[in-house]
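Workshop exercise sheet. Pairs work together: one partner reads the sequence aloud, the other fills in the structure field after running the prediction. Swap roles for the next sheet.
Pair: D.N. / O.F.
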Amino acid sequence: MRIFLKFLEQNINSFSILGGYIFMTKYRSEILKLAETTALTNNEIARVVGCSVKTVLKYAGSYTSRTKSKANFDEEAWKIQKTVLLPDIHHPHYEQRVMDSVNEFIIDYDPDEIVYMGDQLSLDCISFWNRNKPLLKEGQRLMKDYNDFNKDILQVHENITRKDIRRTFMIGNHEYRIDAYTERNPELAEFIDVVRYLNLPERGYTIIPFNEVYKVGKLNVIHGFYWNIYHARKTVDDFQGNVVYAHVHNPQMFTKISPVDQKGYHMATSLPCLCNIKPEYKKNAPNHWVNGFGIVEHLPATGFFNLYMIIIIEGSFMWNGKYFGKKIY
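Structure field:
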């Protein structure tokens, strides 16, 4: 026993070094695996593995050099992508001067993608809320709604943008009225679907089903779930990530920062709307609706993004030193 204790005393430093080596080797394999198979930053890898950022840097190198080496075969991954987010048009309940200013901007901005964030159409003629109000539906026809929306919005945007841009069509709660209507009238299911009627997939549109998430870089794009007064806070609490949404027609932001990781903050952003902010059914009652839309610029190689909210006042706004819409001078 004494011989063993003496041996242990003489070699304790060697055992410590060996233990540290084994421990660091374990870190090394986990770090390299995450660095190779994910787009996590060094800070994120350190949190997952439970080591220091310095240790991640030692084995995986810098995040920038790592992502560049992954994307060196694709130069497009390092070109900033420009996306225009169009929330809640509610065709035909929109102001032409508002849409004219947006179209003028789209021509100038030359986006790589347009995302229709849901509730592109109002679809009053099949609304559950109007089922016993024939006067409100008088003269309305579903196919006319589709054709007019296509002519006034989609075809206009197709004509003023490059042919190769991405077009994304999200299903909002108003488009979902079609599903609710066909549940009550299943014999019409194959005849009144807006996606099929307008041939959107054949025209190059990506369709995002109701309540599903679309990603622009690391930004999660949704139509929106909540309508309470603090909807941005509710959204960021539930999604635990960076989210932009429409649905409520008024701008709001809420940021959530963890006391454990103050760099890992998340933000929920509600965009304004592109519909008429004084709808007939509100009978001139006060509301909090605001006209506007969103712009996202992101880097595909990393997913990093910047989100900009544009507020439109009486059909006009400014961006990047330029004036768009109704001239006031």
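Discussion prompt: The first strand starts at residue 81 and ends at 86. What would you look at next?
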